[in-house]
Amino acid sequence: MNVVSRIIDRGLWADGRLASLAVVVRDRPGYLNEVTGVVAIAGANVLHIEHTRAFGDISVGKVGIEMRIETRGRDHVAKIVHELRELGHTVDELK
Description:
Order of helices and strands: HEHEEHE
Largest sheet: 4 strands, antiparallel
Number of helices: 3
Strand content: 25-35%
Radius of gyration: 14 Å
Oligomer: single chain
Mean pLDDT: 89
Structural class: alpha+beta
């Protein structure tokens, strides 16, 4: 079962049905809600989220958000990334 699960996950990643995004936002109340709201409004699903403020190369006053999302495909991921960038957030798709 584990091997089958990994095969399915790899297929979903390759198809863009699963994606991992790294988003940097201001360290202020409401920004995590804004990011997850963009995902929800776009019709995608957050599968995992990690909110980090004290590690890595994140500037003071900024917060890193890594999230794994379930989408409808590559175009859907691109739309979500575009929406987040339009709000002024730094976004990278993780491979």
